[in-house]
Amino acid sequence: MSVEYVQHLSNNLKRLYFEDPRYKNLRILIKEQCKDKTDGLVFAVRKNEIHIYYRGGRLLKITDKENKGAALKIYTNPNYAGADPNNEIAKWNEYDTSKDAAIWCDNLEKLKGYLTRFYQGKRGNDERLLQHMLELNNRDFNGEVVVIDNEYGVQKIATRFSHLDRKKKDNFGKFTKHELSILAERNLTPDEVLNMTDKELEDFRRDYKLCKVDLVALFKGDDGKYKICLIELKKGNGATGGPSGIKDHMRDFKLFTEVRKNDIVKSVENLIASKTSDKIDTIANYPAGGIELDKENIYISILCYDLSTNKKIENVENDIKQAYDEETKKILPHFYYNPRMEETKGDYTLRKEDLLHKV
Questions:
Q1: Phi/psi class of residue 281: alpha, beta or left (left: φ > 0; alpha: ψ in -120 to 50)?
Q2: Structure pTM?
Q3: Reduced to 3 states, what is the DSSP secondary structure of residue 214?
């Protein structure tokens, strides 16, 4: 089975972005702005793409898909310009980056303004900004918690079994060779899958989609090993979605850690190597001798910010206890939930005790 984590760059993209003299000014500008803890950028590694985030929104997408891999291609979302009939962002997207990235260097500040106005007042913007600030302020191995990625995802299996949809009768039940190999690994025959009820089939297909959480972080355990912690953020009353929302999270976490644990470990190792290298250097004070990663235990922590009353906190805790049943405890022995987080202006430092608030 192929490795299906999404945090890796091809050698060609790494060469173009980090070494090609055409893009020197852009990488220097981005690297410098990544150091700012109050209004900085976040460098993210995706599946052969570099994403640059600002205030929780994707500012730039950088690929090696220009001139058949001979140059970088740089994009942003043209919708950031709103209804502007002259939409200069669309023109930036058409810029010939086979010669340089000058237009992006010259207009980076203007683009940040466009993005800020685009997300202002939109649903989820407060949580998006909180996520960004937590990453900006927890990128140092001298701290208790080190955030190494946002919108962290691992694809559970390299297929979505798209032909298992009874509404599309002409295609229903067709399997690729890869899908048949997956069924064999799970000791399932095609007939067993095709004879599932609609609900069973829906659950089966859902198992193979992309797992995603808000942040992935590291903290040092009492045994000296660094623990991987997947963090989901919630902000404000109602953000948890009640018992059904919590159960959905539990289900995703179980699939995340059961089905793709090895890929989680591999992707985290890749992220550490990438973000602590001299070329990116967005995470400070990486130990000279390296770190030892705990490859057996995955920690889960849901951090809920700014619940307005003790009653709201109590309700959330009850929802968690209801969803965290005995079966779930066996699969997620390192599950934690903290409903008492508060967003304090100027202090977004995460501590180990924040993550390990026991249910």
A1: left
A2: 0.83
A3: strand
